Amino acid sequence: MATIRPRIGVMGGTFDPIHNGHLVAASEVANAFQLDEVIFVPTGLPWHKKTVSSAEHRYLMTVIATAANPNFTVSRVDLDRPGITYTVDTLIDISAAHPDADLFFISGSDAIAQILAWKQIDKVWSLAHFVAVTRPGHTLELPDAPGAQMSVLEVPAMAISSTAVRERSNTGKPIWYLVPDGVVQYIGKHGLYGGAK
Ligand code: ATP
Ligand code: MG
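Above: the input record for the complex with adenosine-5'-triphosphate. Below: its predicted structure, written as tokens.
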């Protein structure tokens, strides 16, 4: 009898903080690709930018934001691995933890455009199917990657970025309804990004 392989989404990000654009993207891909689970993976040290909040704050905000969805989970693999985070290592660790699953790596159009610069890109392609979601303000240009499994999904336009959430918070503007309620409260409680209103 053929066994059914679990289908698992992997959504990497700095999540500094996690916002509703990330959650809508994950939810839409889960629905369109019939995923059993989406694992959110906060980065350790990103190779391309600095984080503002500590790894533990970013991790906890991601847990709070995803806690109510039975199909969403959060992984610490990138936080617990020392050094800079590379997607190849994320996918190796997630596939080692789920050896019988098919992985779907979810990223926005800005991130997919940078993909060819990733470490061990040929290995990366072999580890997952790539789903590029549309993102307001970014044109979707798929990398020229023969042999890669890649799909595009148009998702409801959420013109939100963590950068804008941080800026709004720092300048005393509300961030309610851009990030989940619990994340607004967590930001206020810990005084992140100047504290939330
Ligand atoms: P920052 O402004 O700090 O870069 P960000 O909002 O871009 O934050 P990231 O943590 O960098 O968030 O992104 C993680 C992933 O989520 C990336 O693949 C990114 O393209 C995607 N993403 C982020 N915001 C959206 C959005 N509003 N719609 C669709 N995809 C998004
Ligand atoms: Mg970004």
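Notes for the reader.
The chain has a mean pLDDT of 94.
The helical segments are 20-32, 55-66, 77-80, 87-97, 109-113, 121-127, 162-170, 181-190.
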